[in-house]
Specification:
The protein is built from 20 helices and no strands. It is mainly alpha-helical. α1 runs antiparallel to α6 and α16 runs antiparallel to α17.
Amino acid sequence: MVSKKVYFWSIVVALGGFLFGFDTAVISGAEKAIQKLWNLNVFEHGLTVAIALIGTVLGSLTGGIPSDKFGRKNTLFGIAVLYLLASVGTALAPDWYTFLFFRFLGGIGVGVSSVTAPLYISEIAPAKSRGKLVAMFQFNIVFGILMAYVSNYAFAGISEHDWRWMLGIQAVPSIVFLATILMVPESPRWLLLNRANKVEDAKRTLEIANPDANINQMVTDILMSAQERDDFGNKPVLFSKKYSLPITLAVLFAFFNQVSGINAIIYYAPRIFEMVGLGQESALLSSAGIGFVNFLFTLLAMNVIDRFGRRTLMFIGSLGLIVTLGLVAKAFYLEEFNSMSVPVYLFVYIAFFAFSQGAVIWVFISEIFPNQVRASGQALGSFTHWIMAAVIAFSFPYIAETLGGGNTFMIFTGMMVLQLIFVWRMMPETKGTSLEKIEKSVVFH
């Protein structure tokens, strides 16, 4: 059983994931009203939607720096401040430029959150429950997306400024996050590696998280990992030869996450459904269904990831994604558009994705890097994920129009075949193993 305190700390930090999901999706209900209000041209409208994603890429790239320098807890507090500023600032924005600035701030919050929150939970969680606790972050992202859609629906039409309410309501969970983050301790591993006078504080937190473990031995193992030096006696940096395997694993894992086509399908679901002959209303309803399936299967994966392991979930998911994407490609090639087959295939696709890649990505990347470079390693994985998300989101309409639906989905299918080979040949299992033991097996393999 996970200690109630550790569970509470993980839920609080995973709130960063809820705000991440909410902030990402909430713009969908406001963008048309904003375009009309400030009379935006096509470029300005595109920038309004994309500016948060640009901030996210920047935040994920630099998120490891404050996590290492100021600590995980202080960085999480800073993220909460960014979310609060973004929600209030966008809701009250008097002009387009002010709106852009605060959306960009929110995007930075999302990017840094995708680095620091999984990092913190992985460092505080007991080995046997680490998968479930870190996967709570992904579950909250999906929950945040779902609640953004529900919230947008609830506020739609309440006044001519309904879009301001849609964006401003995010201040409520932001304040909750800001207040509760003060109640969590600093990561014990960060304290042991960066604050020599805080060893007793670190021990107390480790004892709460690992009541049956030999705490002195754990502290010794963590401190030993901090003694690693390169051939010249310097502290190791991420991009050194010894870390080539975890770097390769993180980059490939994040790359495959996006070339599965997940963001193309989530962002453009109504368009895809209309391409196969569904009316606009049915297309929007099917899109809401995708959000619900995503939520449901992320919850299922969160509860079995520590029992079956990360690798098993990825095997199951990869096979399911190959089959479902292949069936969608076939439907486009043969123009099988008179039934509900394509929406059904995509619903099953979302289920397999949520059960595997969706749930595993933040868990796996947060586990495979050694203590000394975990923050910068997590930042690398997160940055790869977000830059690929941007590339896929921007290029999908052009690729689909140029190559056609069949070829586009066949490319995604081929990428998932490569992912299956990656899982089979390269991916190590990390369930139930301490971070320090994973370090020895992955880095010094």
